[in-house]
Give the backbone structure.
Amino acid sequence: MDFIYRVSAIPVQPVKVFATGYGECGGGMAANACVALARLGGEAHYWGRIGDDAVGTRILDQLADEGVNVATVRRLPGCASPTAAILVDAAGERLICTYNDALFDPDPSWLPLGSVVTFDVVLTDVRWPEASGAILRAARAQRVPSVLDGDIGDADALNELCSLADYAIFSQGGLAIASGLGDPGRGLQRMQEATHGVVGVTLGKDGLLWLEGGQERMARPPAVHAVDTLAAGDVFHAAFALAIVEYGSVERAAGFANAAAALKCTRFGGRLGAPTRSEVEALLRGE
């Protein structure tokens, strides 16, 4: 659950800050992606864990209200559901303070991995690497396309998950951690050595950089006025996963995902700003 505050600037020292706007909505990388995918016309199933508290009930209710299937969610007794306090400044940039209960059991053995074959694509991230690894292995065995959202996390986990994914799309911070290199181009070259899949990195307003045939390719997003970048990466990955299934082309998938993420950035409120399919297609047509 995200608690989002609009502020004029993100402080760099201890100080009292007065917000000019406030909102609450469910958050989390995979959950945000599910909502974004559902709004784009896909049938989204969320696999994850939450606490058995009132916050967890709100999280599930909000996902269900967006049309997300939450049948494969485990509620952990005695655990607090994840929460985050988020500051969004005048330029749309954000500072996120997240709490995840250390009592969450990382064991993924209860997941119905045999049903992976019923999906058109799976999207995983690094927040629960044990589950992501199991799902990516199942997807490979069952020949289901897989996408990794390689955001900031443990370097070993990022490298292992990258090796298993058909499309490993990193954030700049995640790529730097995984590759040990600050330059995005060199970082992608390093990660390509560890996988037969496609590797790419999101560069914010500069779009997606990826390798194709060993060569760098770039897809740039439409120019927009950003007011809130929170959940933009999650929207991008959801749109990319859906478009890979529909178009089979990284270039076309990147263009679709860039447009979806750009629209999200024009709206305050995290994933509440995720666009619909018709809105993305209108932007792509220049309307």
